[in-house]
Amino acid sequence: MTSTSPRKIIIDTDPGQDDAIAILLALASPEELDLLGITCVAGNVPLARTQTNARIICEVAGRPEVKVFAGRDAPLSRPLVTAEAVHGKTGLDGPDLFDPKMPLQTQAGVDFIIDSLRQEPAGTVTLCPLGPLTNIAAAFEAAPDIIGRVQEIVLMGGAYFEVGNITPAAEFNIYVDPEAADIVMKSGVKVTMMPLDVTHKALITRPRIDALLALNSRVGQFAAEMLDFFERFDMEKYGSEGGPLHDPCVIAYLIQPDLFSGRQINVEIETQSDLTLGMTVADWWRVTDRPPNALFIGDVDAEGFFSLITQRLARL
Ligand code: RIB
Ligand code: CA
User: Fold this and answer.
1) Quick one: which H or E segment has residue 135?
2) What's the predicted TM-score (pTM) here?
3) What's the total number of domains in the chain?
């Protein structure tokens, strides 16, 4: 997919070390992506940290002019569940952190999403959720007129063959706010999902971290230190050679979609059962007559993915 002008995107995020790499990749790719703003959501860590972390990442990238907004601090109708065990207390453990100087925008993140979709030409803004879908669903509920104006939602979330990571049945982003995910999946918007089925094939390995260190740059060092910390939880849990790099799959897909492959299928969200709450019930084998509502990505060229990340981060 080549286009003459960069694609307008809003990144909705809960940084999170993997979110951070996704943001850096987007900032390093102005030919393909026009980042309208970053809206933060409570997820990996509380909102106060996710909005601070997003600004830290922009400053490390040398981009203090990026507009960062605070969105919702809790799921639509449930208490917040966080993941400090994976990301550390700050959500960005690994490198030395600092208090960002760049401002947090005063406008609420949900209102920024609504206003951007109303002001930009219809069908020209792609939403890139990298955390719980609370902000997106809240925007759709507050302003149903924007739903038809969204070009596409490319999100990280869900799991099918890979099963869950926060419960046996559910992936974290969906589990934290299943009602929000249900609203998004039933909205009718074109959705591309990056579930654990694909992100677990994008493993951070020592050579891949060393390639970031070899950039001999502040960004390379910062990224390597984040990933060194971030991957240990999943390496211990899965006994794998590295941890999965989830969120950058969303941004890499927008830059180089041929790195990925998937299937247009129906995906519904479990919102009632305590046992399987937040499960993405993906009809991969099309055994139901439920209409397809998502491109469910199952595979990635991992070498190409990490090469893209390293090449682009070298620009910052
Ligand atoms: O399950 C992985 C997802 O949960 C990623 O987005 C990670 O950042 C956490 O938010
Ligand atoms: Ca995330």
Assistant:
1) helix 134-142
2) 0.97
3) 1
